[in-house]
UniProtKB/TrEMBL annotation:
Keywords: Transferase
PANTHER family: STEROL 3-BETA-GLUCOSYLTRANSFERASE (PTHR48050), STEROL 3-BETA-GLUCOSYLTRANSFERASE UGT80A2 (PTHR48050:SF13)
GO biological process, one term: antibiotic biosynthetic process
Transferase recorded as keyword: yes
Domain Erythromycin biosynthesis protein CIII-like C-terminal: 286-420
Protein name (record): Glycosyltransferase
The organism's place on the tree of life at top rank: Bacteria
KW Transferase (keyword) present: yes
Species per Swiss-Prot/TrEMBL record: Agromyces luteolus
CDD domains: GT1_Gtf-like
GO terms, molecular function: hexosyltransferase activity; UDP-glycosyltransferase activity
Annotated InterPro entries: EryCIII-like_C, Glycosyltransferase_28, UDP_glucos_trans
Amino acid sequence: MADVMIAVMPFAGHVAPLAAVAEAFVEAGHRVRVYTGRAYADRFAALGAEPVRWSAAPDFDEHDIAATFPALRDRKGPRQLLANVEHLFVGTGAAQGDDLVAAYGQRPWDVIVADGLSLGTHFAAERTGTPSVTVSIVPLSIPTPELPPPILPLRPARGPLGRIRDRVLNSTLTLTTRGIKRAYDAQRAASGLPPTDAPLDAAWHSPDLVCASGVPELEFPRSGWPVRIEFVGALAPTGSIRPDPPDWWARLPEDRPIVHVTQGTLNVDPDDLIRPAFAALGRQPVSIVATTGRADAPDLPFPAPPNAHVAGLVDYAELLPRTDAMITNGGWGGVLAALAHGIPLIVAGGDIDKPVIAARVAWAGAGIDLRTGTPSPRAILRAWRRLSADPSYRERAEEIGRELRAHDGPREVVAHTMALVERRRAQHRPAPAA
């Protein structure tokens, strides 16, 4: 048995996969604590883990982040990405580390397993000298000179001009993120850690082990990784959130294909994707199942067409086996859930990592990238017709789905983590007497 600390940023899209990981550790007999925000403490407690709430770190409401971080108000696209990283993810790092080190002082852990965007985890592991595991719940963002910067929605370059493009972009990104690097250096100093010459991108993954959600088929080809990477497939079982079925569920026609439209769980303005999807498909021979992304807000501020059905959340274990296509804002968990069922995608990625995810889906041949988070009805209709007419999208989605279904993500994280712990224990075990 090991004592395991799990750290997860308090966002629904982060909590779902880490909750599955926490449950797998508990089921394997390990003693588990989970460091997260107050909104999700009860969820982890229900799994048998001991919650450790944000205390020194400023807890926040994911649906009103600007109330805690005013610099994030009214930002979208690349500006939001940079501001989120600097103020929310980096700016809370030292305080997160302080909370975790205090918990370690109360009861030392054997290993810390963390959401890759939990910067305080890396500070705490460095301060305590304990092994750490990064669970990447978004596509890997480890850069390489062979590829464009991983935060940009660009495909691998071809030819000499493309390689020049990537060198220029990588250099430009270093300049663009200087403010983030200064904030990171300040957080290290506030944590009592020495300066480091390591590049900023190294701050977001453990030097010991990275368990990456997804499969290599969704990664751009490269010659290698600078750290140990283990792909573990999808992390959140599609049945991990089991809301009660909406009252219209039993009335869904059996003879019509279902198109699922999801706004995700962050930046859930229904005007961005749900409204144009209704306009595009409201007269088509399909049933539209739309989710607002909020269980407490299942209604829309505009009427739905007769063939549409709306809920805050739906049970994916019930919905996805019946779904013909998904129109999504590009959340990684939802994308992997769809692909695990062989469902082709139309992706409208507008914010944070969503444009990158959309580009990867299109590159892999499993869907269409609308190249905007606010598509027009015409663009959605055109993409849906193309998806329906070309069987290669569904064939490729099913190929990737077979790879995803070959994994048991949460249990694989446990197995890889415990192998790391045993290697560390062996290194510190006294040599047998002669």
